[in-house]
Amino acid sequence: MRARSSKLSGHREARPPHAAATIFVRAAHADAPAAHFCTDGLTVPCALGRGGISRGKREGDGATPAGRLVLRRIWYRADRVPRPRSRLPVHAIRPDDGWCDAAGDRNYNRPVRLPYPASHERLWRDDHVYDVVVELGWNERPRVQGRGSAIFLHLARPGYAPTEGCVALARADMLRLLPHLRPGMALIIS
What we know:
Blueprint: E1 4-5, E2 12-13, E3 22-27, E4 34-39, E5 42-47, E6 53-54, E7 64-65, E8 67-76, E9 90-92, E10 97-100, E11 111-113, E12 120-122, E13 132-136, E14 152-155, E15 167-169, H1 171-177, E16 186-189
Parallel strand pairs: 3-16, 6-7, 8-9, 14-15
Antiparallel strand pairs: 1-2, 3-4, 4-5, 8-13, 8-16, 10-11, 10-12, 13-14
């Protein structure tokens, strides 16, 4: 089938994205904060961490980790978007949801309830970046202190501004992708 352009977001489309079990994120340069998000039949722009892609990811370096990150579950703001249809587990974000980013803490790189005494990231945000979040399997088994936390696939800021280490998609592209995600799928960042 011949590839065609979609007027919705300027991506190439040949087959529905559910045909692939792997999603690729490729940057033109390892230190570039912009890249392309590619799965079978779908290629769209995405944002990466301000530090580009790193094979030696460290907490706070602003880099997106290189590697194979399994898709774990979807988090979403029920007050802003309808419940996503997906075969991945789906969890509504609550105002007291957070993610511990304090290296050395027993809950490092895990979800926590707020208030939380150690450094953490708030999942219930005033901006729209975390209206839809796909939790990625980074630094989880084994969990290495300081190797990076809260690595997600989330919504992009205007102009695909760099993230703190995550991968970010335009809202329309994310919502189109969600129904095709399933357990066992992985994001390959290179």
